[in-house]
Amino acid sequence: MTFKILVLPGDGIGVEIMAEATKVLDVLRRDFGLDLETIEGYLVGGAAIDAFGNPLPEETLLAARAADAVLLGAVGGPKWEGLAYEVRPERGLLGLRAELGLFANLRPAVLYPQLSDASTLRKEVVAGLDLMIIRELTGGLYFGQPRGRRTLANGEQQAFNTLVYSESEIERIGRVAFEIARKRKKKVCSVDKANVLECTELWREVMIRVHQDYPDVALSHMYVDNAAMQLVRWPLQFDVMVTENMFGDILSDAAAMLTGSIGMLPSASLDAHGKGMYEPIHGSAPDIAGKGLANPIATILSVAMMLRYTLNMPAMAEHVEKSVESVLDADLRTRDIYTENHRQVSTGEMGDAIVTALRSRK
Ligand code: NAD
User: Fold this and answer.
1) Is the pLDDT at 261 greater than 90, yes or no?
2) Is 225 among the residues known to form the active site?
3) Which domains does the chain have, with CATH numbers?
4) Ligand 1: which residue has its CA nearest to atom 25?
5) Engineering a disulfide at 92: which of 55, 77, 126, 143 sits with its beta carbon 3.0 to 4.6 angstroms away?
6) Is 186 a catalytic residue?
7) 70 and 6 Cβ atoms separated by less than 8 Å
8) Active-site position among 26, 35, 50, 225
9) What is the DSSP secondary structure assignment for residue 338, as one 8-state letter?
10) CB of 76 sitting under 6 A from ligand 1
11) Mean per-residue pLDDT over the chain, rounded
12) What confidence score (pLDDT) does residue 340 get?
């Protein structure tokens, strides 16, 4: 069976980093015999607004539906910031997540030993960090209805959003967390605010119920404010964290910074059948776009996640991950992870070095 991968570079550095990820896909196809086809030429985000006046054109959505996986660079930039919310580049991303039913967002935060000086935390606090945050992605406050603004009788403006989750939504993200924990250190920490919010009280009840099917995994609970504190106090205590949409949005960014550079971190967003969209967690970095300064590793590691979670090829995923490590071992660094006594390389040079390392693993 041929795996169809829709490649969407998007905007800004998205184009540069995707060029490097595509080189990796080419090696996987040519040298490792992977039966995959890349589908290219479709637009999303700002580029799609410029061409079609729509951040998620129908043809892009159809191509995404037809593909087995989507590999996405990044969207957005100052050029489109003044537009209405409904036609902003980010709507393209939210639209893809919602339309494809990508409810489970997996964000690993791994600190490579070679980069332990790049973290803002002390080495002894973060060394060995290998954490997976699982964020519910299609429910909660960002999607709940009713939402909007209204004018009160006294003329004052009021705005409101709704935090809402049904049992089935909580159950399916819980199952993803327990399944993934089974392949790791078998520890799940469910993050909520059950002391204040009814919605997350239900969240906790459902997590406890689902856990009965996974007696080999340890389940703990933590309030979100404490979880934020514990992430910077003692991050090594966590293996898998699972939480609702907004809490996950915030906690996963905090966890990302523990690892030093946003340019190193991949992510996956999965549907109920393992289909996924894979993308670096960073944005389009307009400040460095077109200068050869972007770190392509987050995108290349997103390819590794795709191999692991959609194509079910963990050994192949490991080849890609080990190739990244070997290049770091060889002291190659893009500017964002550069520290003294290393060699600074461009986006393309980093991609080429990873591809060479990958070929040598055949
Ligand atoms: P950003 O992630 O683009 O950049 C933040 C900082 O990190 C910048 O200094 C940038 O140069 C640096 N950086 C990011 N990725 C890097 C990489 N691969 N290598 C080296 N350095 C890197 O966030 P921002 O500046 O807040 O947002 C810029 C645009 O991206 C905005 O339009 C925003 O809406 C959009 N955005 C998109 C996504 C996405 O597509 N998933 C995510 C976040 C932000």
Assistant:
1) no
2) yes
3) 1-103+271-362 (3.40.718.10), 110-264 (3.40.718.10)
4) 285
5) 55
6) no
7) yes
8) 225
9) -
10) yes
11) 95
12) 84
